[in-house]
Specification:
It contains nine helices and no strands. It has about 180 residues and is mostly helical. The protein has two domains: about 30 residues, no CATH class; about 120 residues, no CATH class. The model has no long low-confidence stretch (mean pLDDT about 90).
């Protein structure tokens, strides 16, 4: 998107952090609106976990343990996102793992948010699937029941309990 803006191939682009900064900082464009304020249904579902359902049924304990570990990580990330006591540790981990090699990016810019309860916005997924059908990338929207099995997340939340934000003074919208 940044190159297209810089080359004047497009006049506008819909970008999310951290890509917004990769467009703004070199002067390819300006940030004028937060997509979360306009795109509906919100929040836009940008990322989900996918699993082979036949395999998952045969390995239920393993899947549950994976999601338990995954959601612990998501909750830690959300605490760090809001400036919690683990922020430096999370930034060091993200740099060590190569997720982002420039710590200044993680210190200076807003991170993509996660849902600390693992919820999936099915309405958003259906909306995106409808766009794919309309633009002939696929022929049909999948049945809602096939889009999201939240039983793993329900299990994890029953084990972890409610998410309590450590830094209650944070004004960031995401990870709540």
């Amino acid at each position: 998107m940044g190159l297209a803006l810089n080359n004047k191939a497009v006049d506008a682009a819909l970008a999310i952090p951290p890509f917004t900064y990769q467009i703004r900082d070199p002067g390819f464009g300006v940030m004028f609106a937060d997509p979360d304020d306009y795109v509906r249904p919100a929040p836009t579902e940008l990322s989900v976990n996918m699993i082979n359902t036949d395999w998952a049924k045969q390995n239920l304990d393993l899947v549950r343990r994976y999601y338990l570990a995954y959601m612990r990580g998501v909750r830690d990330y959300c605490q760090a996102y809001h400036g919690g006591s683990n922020r430096k540790e999370m930034i060091d981990l993200l740099v060590r793992s190569g997720a982002e090699r420039r710590p200044e990016m993680l210190n200076d810019y807003i991170w993509p948010a996660r849902d600390p309860l693992g919820r999936v916005n099915v309405a958003s997924v259906l909306d995106i699937a409808g766009w794919y059908v309309k633009n002939k990338f696929t022929s049909a929207v999948p049945a809602t029941a096939r889009l999201a099995d939240l039983s793993y997340i329900d299990y994890v939340n029953s084990k972890l309990g409610p998410f309590v934000l450590e830094n209650q003074s944070s004004t960031l919208k995401g990870c709540r």
